[in-house]
Amino acid sequence: MLSNEGEQVGATEDSLILSDQDVRQLLTMEACVAIQEKVFALNAQGRAWNGENAWVNPNPEKQTLPAQGKVLTGGIEPDWWGVKNGFYGTNDPDGQRRVQTLIIFRSQTLCPVAVMDSMYIGKVRTGAGAAVATRFLARRDARVIGVLGTGATAWFSLLAHRAISWPVSRVVVYSRSPERRQRFSKELSARTGYPVDTLDSPEQVVRQAEILITGTATLTPVMKADWVQDGTHVNAMGQKYEIDPQLLTRAKLVGDEASTAIRDGKVSVAIQSGLFIDKSTCASLGEIVIQARPGRTSNKEITLFDSSGLCIQDLATGLYLRQLAQERGVGRRAEFHHQEGLW
Fold first, then answer.
1. Do the domain assignments include residue 166?
2. Long-range contacts of 221-224 (CB under 8 A, 24+ apart)
3. Backbone angles phi and psi of 43, in degrees to 5
C-alpha cells in the first residue's frame, strides 16, 4: 500500500481520479485507524515527512469571490509525494464554497498517479488520529468521553473510538447551540450505541471527562486548565487557540508531529504566550507508537495530543484508496503526462 513494490513503473502512466462518492464507497474508519497508526510510525522512523504548510490569503479587495486556502505537502519514502489543497470561501455561511483535493505523485517520475476529492478523507483521518492517540496515551480504565464541539471533528473522533472498540460508559457533550448538541447527542447515540448526555457548560464536560475531545473553531480558549482532572487524556483536535495554554505546562505533550506542534499547533500558542515549554519533551505520536519515547507513565499524568493535521495522513489514506480502487474498478482515468523534456 505505502510502497510501489510489485508495480510496473513506466515513463508515463494514467492518473486515477476519485470523486467524493468514490472515496465514501471505499474508505472505512476501521481501515483508516490502521493506516494512521502505520504512517505515524513511519514518520517517527524518518520514512514519512511533512513540508511546512503554506497559507493562501489573497487580497479580498482584488477578488470577485473572496476565498483563502491552505496547502500541505509531504512524502512517504522512497516512492511517493503528496500535495493537499484546501480552499474556502470567506463569505460562505452555508459552507458551499469549499473544496479539498489530494494529488499523489510517484517520486521516480513526478507523475501524478492519483487525484481525489479529500474532504471526506480529511474528516475520517482526523478522527482516526484521535483514536490512535487514545489507544497509546489514555488510561486503560478511562470510560467517560467528554466532547467540546458538535461538528465533524467531534463526530468522526467518536466514530473512530467506536471503531477501535474502546469501552465507553458515557459521553458528555457541550456546544454553544442547545439545538445542535441535542441533535448531535441523538444521532451519535443511534450510530454508536453510546449513552450520550448533553451538559449546559464546558466546565461540566471537562471536569467529568477521562478522555476529552476538543473540536472547535474558536479563537479563544473554550476551557480552563484547572478544570482538567489528573489522569485525563486530551485529544486537542480543533483550532490551535481552543486550549488554555496553562494546561500545556501540566501535561505530557504529544503532537501528531512534534515539530509541527511547536511551529503551528497548540504548543506554539503556549510558547508565544510567554509560558515556559521545554520543546525537547514534546514527542511525536509515532515515537510513542514505536516505543522510541514513553507514553503515559502514571494514572495521574495528564496527556495531551496536539493535532494539527499532516499531509502524510492524507497521503497514506489516499494510497490505500488508490490500491483499493484499482482492485475494485472504481474511479476513472485521465492522462496528465508527456514524454517531452523541458529542454
1. yes
2. 221/245, 222/148, 222/149, 223/148, 223/247
3. -60, -45
40: closest CA among 123, 130, 100, 159? 130
Instruction: Report in angstroms the alpha-carbon separations of 320 from 3, 36, 242, 292, 313.
Output: 10, 11, 32, 26, 11
Task: Decide if 101 is inside a domain.
Answer: yes
Is 236 in contact with 250 (CB distance < 8 Å)?
Answer: no
Reported residue count of the chain is 343
CB 238 within 8 A of CB 266: no
CATH code for the domain of 231: 3.40.50.720
Residues 162 and 79 in one domain: no
Please list the pLDDT of the chain residue by residue as tens digits (343 residues).
Answer: 676 665 666 556 889 999 999 999 999 999 999 999 999 999 999 999 999 889 898 898 899 989 999 999 999 999 999 999 999 988 777 777 889 999 999 999 889 999 999 999 999 999 999 999 999 999 999 999 999 999 999 999 999 999 999 999 999 999 999 999 999 999 999 999 999 999 999 999 999 999 999 999 999 999 999 999 999 999 999 999 999 999 999 999 999 999 999 999 999 999 999 999 999 999 999 999 999 999 999 999 999 999 999 999 999 999 999 999 999 999 999 987 666 665 6
Whether residue 159 sits in one domain with residue 20? no
- How many Å separate Cα 32 from the centre of its chain? 11
Distance CA 289, CA 295 (A): 8
Contact indicator for 45, 77 with CB cutoff of 8 Å:
no
Report the DSSP pairing between strands 332-334 and 15-18. antiparallel
Q: How far is residue 117's CA from residue 230's CA, in Å, rounded to a whole number?
A: 41
